[in-house]
Amino acid sequence: MNFWKAFFASCLGALVAMILLCVLIVAVISATGEEEIEVKESSILRLDLDVPIIEIEKESPFAFSILSGAGPQPISLARLRQTIEHAKGDDNIKGIYLNVTLPGAGYTMIEEIRQALIDFKTSGKWVIAYSDLMTESAYYLASAADKIYLNPEGELEFNGLTAEVSFFKRLFDKLDIKPEVFRVGGFKSAVEPFLLEKMSPENKLQLSEMIKAIYNHVLDRVSEARKIPRERLGEIADKMLVRNAKLALEHGLVDSLLYIDQVEQELKKRVGIE
Fold first, then answer.
1. How far apart (Å, rounded) are the C-alpha atoms in residues 247 and 230?
2. Model pLDDT for residues 197-254, shown as the tens digit of each residue
3. Best exposed site among 61, 148, 195, 226 by fewest CB in 10 Å?
4. Which of these, 111, 160, 113, 155, lies nearest to 249 by C-alpha position?
5. pLDDT, tens digit (0-9, with 9 covering 90-100), for 9-51
6. At how many degrees (to 10) do helices 201-226 and 107-121 cross?
7. Which residues pair with 54 in a beta bridge?
8. What are the CA-CA distances from residue 272 to residues 124, 230, 260, 267 (Å)?
9. By C-alpha distance, which of 72, 48, 77, 228 is closest to 138?
């Protein structure tokens, strides 16, 4: 009898512990869930895009802040585009404030976001971009804005695109590792880092052509947005004429050099609030 009493007491204790654990998990998830946001009159949509941007967003019931860490959470391209599209038709949202330094996305995604911002402006609303530092990709995204502001002590990168490839053949030789690779044709560069010590002529050619195509597109779109001749933009990049915020203003890549409090005053004036 003593055995069965202890056995049932243990089972009951385990059951109570499981129930309490489930209640605790539900409470934490509920407390850390997304709150419904009320968009008030004369609002501005702020987009902070220095986060990883992914194609598809996967939600997990266990992805609450306590377990997921304090790092920046990725956002999906689809949700970002839907947000901009919703803001376009929301009368309470007067414009977009774009804050971007190093977007966590390649040029393909950046192009889609940029087109979404351009489409947003067809509603008559405005886009303002500001940052302390803008990389090449960040500036291309910001070029869709009506005004680009840069911190007076900041920097702007505008010197063209590059591509780098890491090679591991010497490491493999030291470790006596011999990769077994089967390929047909010269333009099969995915396995070259394991076989060669430098780029093959074919890989160098295809990477160069890809970079040129992307860069020419960037120059065309920036020239169109900033009203700067394409040849002039190419000269600015090739000679690295923009090395700080002051030179960026002199060459017309940005509209003004402002500190963050001045940008906030500009935003308040645009929506007519104190």
1. 18
2. 999 999 999 999 999 999 999 999 999 999 999 999 999 999 999 989 999 999 999 9
3. 61
4. 155
5. 777 777 777 888 777 776 665 555 556 778 888 899 999 999 9
6. 20
7. 76
8. 16, 37, 18, 9
9. 48
